[in-house]
Specification:
With about 700 residues, this protein is an alpha/beta fold. It has four domains: about 80 residues, DNA polymerase, domain 1, CATH 1.10.150; about 100 residues, Nucleic acid-binding proteins (OB fold (Dihydrolipoamide Acetyltransferase, E2P)), CATH 2.40.50; about 160 residues, Rossmann fold (3-Layer(aba) Sandwich), CATH 3.40.50; about 160 residues, P-loop containing nucleotide triphosphate hydrolases (Rossmann fold), CATH 3.40.50.300. It has 23 helices and 22 strands. β3 and β4 form a beta hairpin. α8 crosses α23 and α20 runs antiparallel to α21. The protein is globular. The protein starts with 20 loop residues before the first helix and ends in a 12-residue tail after the last helix. The structure holds adenosine-5'-diphosphate and magnesium ion. Magnesium ion (MG) binds next to α11.
Length: about 700
């Protein structure tokens, strides 16, 4: 039987030398470590090269881990009782540093004195302007057995806590426990989980060695190999599971067949479409057409930057469904957005003899009853609305396709609800999102969806010009806004509103608004305000006034972030831009640049920016490409912080790192595909290990849970 580990490793950590009940309890509390296996999979978060020594003079960065070789110049006991500490002067000939210990003072006092030669390792800190190191690891350089440490190469560093450290479980203590575990292990304790042919093909080392080298590599190459092998394993398990589920779903889940491209599609194409489709739009349409021919239910994510023209693709897909005798619906996350779609689409559809209707929570009474009746009778072809359209009381005659706009987090539950609406088979589903997800992440998050990407903007679109500004240039900025308004354009001014400091933020917005009123006096200038704390009706009214061009400037929080389309708005001013994340900034910028005129995005920031904030501003000013921005975002923030990934427990990885291991992930996915193509049920004898991997209970792909 395949196991992630042997029986032995699932025994409690107390079996290990150096771990008594008290330490075991603490390990559980602080790190969730119960078994030896838990401990083994608590991998070091970095290694330090103990073959390299710093010099005191050249080491300057606060917090930097350094190793020094030198001699104690003097020692001093300070304080008493619990506050007692040992302070030692230390020099390596280039400078001086003070070593300080608060614990084990009595013991240390005996072995450390002036003239004792030491190798010390720890973090550099400062006390005033003096260099200082608290609780360094030390190794005494003896007469004969000198400098043996120097040869041991890379040392693992484990994450620890204050409480653990005070019990002797600092990184050195944890290292000792790891060593004690390893002392009793043999190869069979960490059995192989991958078929030999795969290891050979990808030149991956075996699992036992990978574990060992990830903890105790002798050199960088071993460490790299260990990381590669285990990262691959983690990502491969994830991918294989997902692909396997997808294959199974496709084998199982039948869908409606859209046999033909019919009259509505053709009529719309020739009569209503005012422009050529872009190559990307055509390609995605082809993919949808391909999906809906197969008899398998489509589940497709359409990714496309703001303004890439997803709506048209949705309309054409809907027409395809209608041509084959089905009804369709289009769902948007907000009433404003849904209404905007309705206003744009309904008329066009009417022209070619089709009926669309709008439904949201606010459509009530007779109006609603009528819509529901017509829907059930099959007289309405396209229902456009908010989440209301998937409520149980909304009954279609024959729903064939559901389009979900601007929402990539459409839950499983909601999907299930839809399936009840179309009789014997589930409707095809396409989800559209303007939040580009880096490829690597998309593969993991949405590995079960097919993904189409509209990676081309309609021609003639002028890229938004992005620049930075600050309070110092307020006058110039205001003048610029006035010029734009004089030219007939409209302006967004966005303030951050972060939940935790929402009071302050609202006050800030209010203050900004009042200042604007002074600088842009009525009646020449009309300014509207929208924020999340307003009543929905008031909000809608303000939005509407802006959409209709009645207000020149819309001051708002990020509520306008999603989807709103006002082509006449050409300026997006983002106040306190440093407080927004990259993807949010990009979304906001996407509100402008939707018409023929040159648009501008102005990032107003404070003077002093953190390194990361500065980097974000630079990226924003240098590119308009949402995918580039998403990749950069992933690099800066790491996958855990990217929207939507936080709730996905599935990608809590122990070794692999999404931002770093993109190539490994792609290899994992490719290999998974090849293997499943040849052996969809993983029944071939050489895939027996993979089958077990895929079937492993607990769903989790964490290394420890295979078994
Ligand atoms: P998004 O992908 O952000 O939803 P939309 O579908 O709202 O983008 O399209 C943005 C604008 O581009 C709309 O005004 C739309 O009419 C226009 N558009 C879409 N496709 C094309 C095209 N192929 N050529 C020219 N304009 C297009
Ligand atoms: Mg859109």
């Amino acid at each position: 039987m395949l196991r992630g580990s042997s029986e032995k490793l699932s025994s409690p950590i107390t079996y290990i030398k150096g771990v008594g009940p008290a330490r075991a309890e603490l390990l559980m509390k602080e790190k969730g470590i119960k078994t030896q296996w838990d401990m083994l999979t608590d991998f070091p978060f970095r290694h330090v090269d103990r073959t390299v020594f710093s010099s005191i003079r050249e080491a300057v960065e606060d917090g930097q881990p350094i190793q020094l070789k030198g001699v104690i110049t003097q020692t001093q006991i300070m304080g008493r009782g619990r506050g007692k500490r040992l302070s030692a002067g230390f020099t390596d000939g280039t400078g001086n540093i003070t070593l300080v210990w608060f614990q084990g003072v009595t013991r240390l006092e005996k072995i450390i004195g002036p003239g004792v030669k030491l190798i010390v390792f720890g973090k550099l800190s400062y006390y005033g302007s003096k260099k200082n190191m608290a609780h360094p690891e030390i190794e005494i350089i003896g007469e004969g057995g000198a400098e043996k440490l120097v040869k041991t190469g890379l040392q693992p560093v484990y994450s620890t806590t204050e409480k653990l450290s005070s019990r002797g479980l600092d990184t050195k203590g944890l290292r000792r426990i790891q060593k004690n575990i390893w002392a009793g292990l043999s190869k069979s304790d960490i059995p192989e989980t991958m078929p030999a042919y795969l290891l050979e093909k990808l030149k991956l080392i075996d699992r036992y060695r990978a574990f060992k080298w990830l903890h105790f590599p002798e050199n960088q190459s071993q460490l790299d190999q260990a990381r590669k092998r285990l990262s691959f394993e983690e990502l491969f398990v994830l991918q294989l599971r997902m692909l396997h589920r997808m294959t199974e779903r496709k084998m199982r889940l039948k869908g409606f067949v859209f046999e033909q491209v019919g009259q509505y599609f053709h009529r719309y194409f020739s009569e209503q479409l005012p422009f050529e489709l872009t190559g990307a739009q055509k390609r995605v349409l082809k993919e949808i057409r391909g999906d809906t021919k197969t008899g398998i239910q489509m589940n497709r994510l359409i990714q496309g930057d703001v303004g890439s023209g997803k709506t048209i693709v949705a309309i054409m897909a809907m027409l395809l469904a209608i041509d084959n005798g089905f009804q369709t619906c289009l769902m948007a996350p907000t009433e404003i957005l849904a209404n905007q779609h309705y206003l744009k689409i309904a008329g066009q559809l009417e022209e070619i003899g089709l009926k669309a209707a709008f439904l949201s929570g606010s459509v009530k009474g007779k109006k609603r009853t009528k819509i529901l009746e017509e829907l059930a009778a099959g007289e309405i072809h396209v229902l456009i609305g908010t989440h209301a359209i998937i409520e149980d009381w909304v009954v279609f005659k024959k729903l064939g396709l559901v389009v979900i706009d601007e929402q990539h987090r459409f839950g499983v539950k909601q999907r299930a609800k839809l399936w009840k609406k179309s009789g014997e088979l589930p409707p095809h589903v396409m989800v559209m999102t303007a939040t580009p997800i880096p490829r690597t992440l998309a593969m993991t998050l949405y590995g079960e969806l097919d993904i189409s990407t509209i990676d081309e903007l309609p021609p003639g679109r002028k890229p938004v010009k992005t620049s930075r500004s600050s309070d110092r240039y307020r006058g110039r900025l205001n003048q610029f806004i006035k010029n734009q308004i004089a030219a007939g354009r409209q302006v967004y001014i966005v303030y951050p509103l972060i939940e935790e400091s929402s009071k302050l933020d609202l006050a800030n917005l209010q203050h900004g608004y009042e200042t604007l009123l002074e600088q842009f006096p009525r009646p020449q200038y009309q300014i509207g305000v929208v924020h999340g704390k307003m009543k929905p009706d008031d909000k809608d009214l303000e939005m509407k006034r802006f959409v209709e061009g009645k207000t020149h400037i819309l001051v708002s929080t990020t509520v306008i972030e999603v989807g709103v389309n006002v082509p006449n708005a050409t300026v997006m001013v983002i106040e306190n831009a440093e407080r927004f994340g990259l993807s949010q900034l990009h979304q906001l910028r996407g509100r402008v640049g939707r018409g023929a005129d040159q648009s501008h995005c102005i990032l107003v920031t404070g003077y002093k920016l953190s390194k990361v904030a500065k980097k974000r501003m630079e990226i924003m000013c240098s590119t308009n490409d949402g995918f580039v921005i998403a990749e950069e975002d992933l690099k800066i923030r790491g996958p855990g912080e990217i929207e939507g990934t936080r709730q996905s427990g599935d990608i809590e990885l122990k070794v692999a790192n999404m931002a770093r291991d993109g190539i490994i992930l792609q290899t994992a996915r490719k290999m998974g595909k090849i293997i499943l193509e040849k052996d969809p049920t993983l029944s071939h004898p050489e895939n027996v290990l993979l089958k077990k991997m895929v079937q492993a209970e607990n769903g989790s792909a964490l290394l420890g849970r295979i078994g």
